[in-house]
Amino acid sequence: MALRTACKMAISVLALSALTACGGGFGSPATERPDQYTNSNNPNNIETNPENTIWSIFNRKNTDTSVSVNKYLWSASLEVLNFLPVQSVDPFTGVIVTGYGTPPGGGRAYRATVLIDDPALDARSLNVALQTSGGQPVARATTRAVEDAILSRAREMRVSDSKF
Q1: Which of 104, 120, 117 is nearest to 158 (CA)?
Q2: What is the pTM of this model?
Q3: pLDDT confidence of residue 42
Q4: Distance between CA 116 and CA 112 in Å, rounded?
Q5: How far is CA 104 from CA 48, 62, 108, 109, 110, in A?
Q6: What's the rounded Cα separation, in Å, for the pair 5 and 3?
Q7: Which of 24, 66, 94, 99 is buried deepest, with most CB atoms within 10 A?
């Protein structure tokens, strides 16, 4: 009987201590909000702006967002480097980052980072950086061959779109 009472008492103490540890004590003040949320005169206050609703994302008045990446270079880069696993892509900045992969018929693993920084279908718009998995430098001729393959495929895509 005394053992049962002691167990109940221990469980009660543990439950109470766990409860107070989570709450940080009773009656503690709430975390204060930054001024940008509490100041109703702030133009960036999203809570008091009556024009800001869930439907406002569909009614954009500013259509200045434009992609300055050549679509043929973008598609050709993904197609030529399709043996590499894509880690991240950002069409707004024109960056494609791949993981390591071995080209067909090759023995060394490479990874590529591609930057397309101009909307023109031009060699100056394309920048390719290759790395080996062992940290060995990649020959400039290899990088140049990949760039040439991407440019050739991009031109083929453009010709087929234009129906020359």
Answers
A1: 120
A2: 0.59
A3: 58
A4: 13
A5: 58, 46, 10, 10, 12
A6: 5
A7: 94
Q: Please, are residues 118 and 124 in contact by the beta-carbon 8 Å criterion?
A: yes
Distance between CA atoms of residues 77 and 156, nearest Å: 13
Q: How far apart are CA 128 and CA 111, in angstroms?
A: 10
Q: Which two tokens stand for residue 105?
A: 């018929």
Residue 141 one-letter amino acid: A
pLDDT band at 105 (very low <50, low <70, confident <90, very high): confident
Backbone phi, psi, residue 136, to 5°: -70, 145
Task: Go through 84-99 and write b for each residue having 16 or more CB atoms within 10 A of its CB, e for each that does not.
Answer: beeeeeeeeebbbbbe
Asked if residue 81 has pLDDT above 70, the reply is: yes
Model confidence over 19-67: pLDDT tens digits? 555 555 455 555 565 555 555 565 555 555 666 666 665 666 665 556 6
Encoding tokens for residue 121?
């279908």
CB atoms within 10 A of CB 70: 22
- Spacing of C-alpha 157 from chain mean position: 27
